[in-house]
Specification:
Pfam families: ABC_tran, oligo_HPY. 32% of the residues lie in helices and 22% in strands. It is an alpha/beta fold. Helix 4 packs across helix 5 and helix 4 packs parallel to helix 6.
């Protein structure tokens, strides 16, 4: 198989608490692969470190150790113009499109500025390219004269995606790209990511806490908890037969469309709060909230293979029936 277009290996991104001086282990040894033309989901509760991982990949946060390889090059080792040019091929979509766009710029001006930054110097060519970018995200040409405040949330997010496309990226890192949008608009934006994958061969890391939204688009899914990857697998495997107790708990909270299924399902209620990333539990980080925890969970669990491309960080993943931990 070809090498993934993006490979994150044992990445650690820690912050220093200004009051105590302790390390906040936002990402604490995370490994992740993203193939060309693939949409991969990264899910977990708020504060688990998934946004920090995305920001570290694009260079908005500094990694303490590990590697981020993009098309075979280690991004953490690149400097100067070479590093900037390479990182330009990885674009970031922020959660709130309104705060991502300048209130003083029209859509046309925002896209034109992005093209100038990316080296397009011919004004006529830029004007034509602006219209192409709008068409690529299914927006009408007349929006070039609109300001962000004059558009809907879905339109603003499409403009942000169009601005990212100005750099001709190979990878999009999307941090909760639909969480601020109306429910009726979310599926439209998710379908846009599918279209970009199919039309442009673009890879996408989709960061979200909404597992139902991720299921619409992602081919593979990583589940993150307290700075660690708990489970990874093909979307059908992970949603159909989750192997880790944390994944099972997350999925049990996703509403079902069939009322009978919703009434008959078994919800998994977790006790306690998420521990502090400054002082995570020893062994399995989920053990303080896990309904299946035992004494052995105080030691570090192995990453257990449950099927082709399906692994779980759990002592009991190899023994218990899938979906029944």
């Amino acid at each position: 198989m070809p090498e993934p277009i993006l490979r994150v290996t044992d990445l650690k991104t820690h912050f220093r608490d200004s009051r105590t001086g302790a390390d906040i282990r936002a990402c604490d040894g995370v490994s992740l692969d993203l193939n060309a033309g693939e949409i991969v989901g990264l899910v977990g509760e708020s504060g688990c470190g998934k946004s920090t991982l995305g920001r570290t990949i694009v260079g908005l946060e500094r990694a303490r150790s590990g590697s981020i390889r993009f098309k075979g090059q280690d991004l953490l080792a690149l400097r100067g113009k070479t590093g900037a040019a390479t990182r330009r091929e990885i674009q970031y979509i922020f959660q709130d499109p309104l705060s991502s766009l300048s209130p003083r710029q029209t859509v046309g001006e925002a896209l034109d500025e992005a093209l100038i930054i990316n080296g397009e110097g011919n004004r006529a060519a830029r004007q034509a390219r602006v219209l192409e970018l709008l068409a690529a995200v299914s927006l009408p040409a007349q929006l070039v004269h609109r300001y962000a405040r004059e558009m809907s949330g879905g339109q603003r997010q499409r403009v942000c995606i169009a601005r990212a496309l100005a750099a001709d990226p190979k990878v999009l890192v999307c941090d909760e790209p639909v969480s601020s949008l109306d429910v009726s608009i979310r599926a439209q934006v998710m379908n846009l990511f599918l279209k970009l994958r199919d039309d442009l061969g673009m890879a996408c890391l989709l960061i979200a806490h909404d597992l139902a939204i991720v299921r619409l688009a992602a081919q593979r899914v990583y589940v993150m908890y307290l700075g660690k990857i708990m489970e990874e697998g093909q979307s059908a495997d992970l949603y159909g037969q989750p192997a880790h107790p944390y994944t099972q708990a997350l999925l049990s909270a996703v509403p079902l469309t069939n009322p009978d299924d919703e009434q008959a399902r078994r919800r998994i209620l977790l006790s306690g709060d998420v521990p502090s990333p400054m002082n995570p539990p020893s062994g399995c980080r989920f053990r303080t909230r896990c309904p299946a925890a035992r004494a052995v969970c105080e030691t570090a669990p192995p990453m257990v293979q449950r099927g082709a491309g399906h692994v779980a960080l759990c002592h009991f993943a190899a023994d218990a029936p899938l979906g029944a931990l």
